[in-house]
Amino acid sequence: MIGMGAVVTRSVPDFHLAIGHPARSIGIVCRCGEPTARFDLAPEAFTASVICRACGLAYDVRAGRVTEVTPPAPVAA
Length: 77
Ligand SMILES: [Zn+2]
Hints:
mainly beta, globular, 6 strands, about 80 residues, 3-stranded antiparallel beta sheet, binds zinc ion
């Protein structure tokens, strides 16, 4: 997710929230749009398991790389 007015100069990893000029990652956003974690230090230093308060989806974060633990079920065609 990119903040309003942000100037993105390089790739933003999946589920990261990037703001500023130039844009930098400040946290993690759930698939539903709810911010779920904020980086205290550099994103590369962030490792945690986070659960969205709004929808309950779980994410595993290792050194800033976000993986969905409980991805939503695929929609039947
Ligand atoms: Zn959510």
